[in-house]
Amino acid sequence: xxxxxxxxxxxxxxxxxxxxxILWVGVSIALLVLVFIILFIVTGS
Length: 45
Prior knowledge:
Layout: H1 10-44
Keywords: Membrane, Transmembrane, Transmembrane helix
Transmembrane segments: 21-42
């Protein structure tokens, strides 16, 4: 029996995960900024 080799696709998957992580961090920061702005407007008036 011959040993099966996995195709070298790990590098592409890591890049995809990094892009998704950057996207999630960006969306999270944007939501936090929006929440702070809304709270500031509500408490300021």
